[in-house]
Amino acid sequence: MFANITALFFDLDGTLVDSVPDLTTAVNSMLQQLNLPARQEAIVRTWVGNGVDNLIHRALTNDMAGHADPALFACAKPLYKAAYARHVSVYSRLYPGVREGLTELQAAGFPMACVTNKPLEFSRPLLADLGIGHFFTTVVGGECVLHPKPAPDPLLLCAERLGVPITQSLMIGDSLNDVGAARHAGCQVVCVPYGYNHGHDIREARPDAVIDSIADLPRLLRGAD
After folding, report:
1. Closest Cα partner for 88 from 63, 124, 112, 51?
2. Which member of 68, 117, 186, 223 has the greatest number of CB atoms within 10 A?
3. 39 and 14 in a common domain
4. Alpha carbons within 13 A on the beta-carbon side of 37
5. Predicted local confidence at residue 95, as pLDDT
6. What is the mean pLDDT of residues 101-115?
7. What's the rounded Cα separation, in Å, for the pair 160 and 173?
8. Per-residue CA distances from 57 to 31, 73, 77, 216 (Å)
């Protein structure tokens, strides 16, 4: 199924890195400065995946579909960004098998991109601090395109930067956003089951395959059992 793949696009949060502990710390620092109640890590975990603005709105309202007062949001966003910049990689960790999988894929000659809705000002330091930044030829953040995932724009930009056809590219992610972006772009998608998909089983989104670990991806691409 994946015999024609020549380039790989990896989501960041929930796919390569469990970043929720640091995101929760930043959220609660913001809320404390606004005299609002702290949020539990378990609920923050269900809010991640649609970009910074949505996370802040959800944290301020304690509601997945919440939309905070514009004046409150305007005060909150710089507080959150400053807190997260101080705490981008204190508790965040690579998921098991990530480093091993990326090492094997790089050795096999696959050009790789990281494509995320997280801003570059946080994505690049996080990748560097966790020692995997060197695997990626390019990083496409949420602000790099007009329409982030699940729109196809970030994936098309990755393909352009890597100089590969989008139809020969593979998206690797953990969420409905990743599946949607791949389908809209016209490329295949493989998902991991452990990430941030708002509490839903990623298999419901019907990716082309689900793997337990990034370490399993090289074998999948080789077509091995």
Report:
1. 124
2. 117
3. no
4. 6
5. 98
6. 98
7. 19
8. 11, 7, 9, 36
Let me know: does 159 contact 7? Beta carbons within 8 Å.
yes
In the predicted model, what is the mean pLDDT of the chain?
Answer: 95
CB-based contacts of 9, cutoff 8 Å, min separation 6: 112, 113, 114, 115, 155, 158, 169, 170, 171, 172, 187
Tokens of 66: 């919440």
CB 177 within 8 A of CB 207: no
Q: How wide is the angle at C-alpha 58 spanned by C-alphas 79 and 192, nearest 5°? A: 105
List CB contacts of 153: < 8 A, sequence separation 6 or more: 145, 146, 147
Q: What does the pLDDT look like over 150-206, one tens digit per residue?
A: 999 999 999 999 999 999 999 999 999 999 999 999 999 999 999 998 888 999 999
pLDDT at residue 51 in the model: 84
User: Is 11 part of the annotated catalytic residue set?
Assistant: yes
Q: Which residue in the list 11, 18, 22, 153 is annotated as catalytic?
A: 11
- Residue 135 domain-assigned (yes or no): yes
Question: Which of 39, 68, 86 is the C-terminal boundary of a domain?
Answer: 86
Residues 97, 35, single domain; the answer is no
Burial status of residue 216 (CB atoms within 10 A of its CB: 0-12, 13-18, 19 or more): middle
Domain that holds residue 29: 20-86
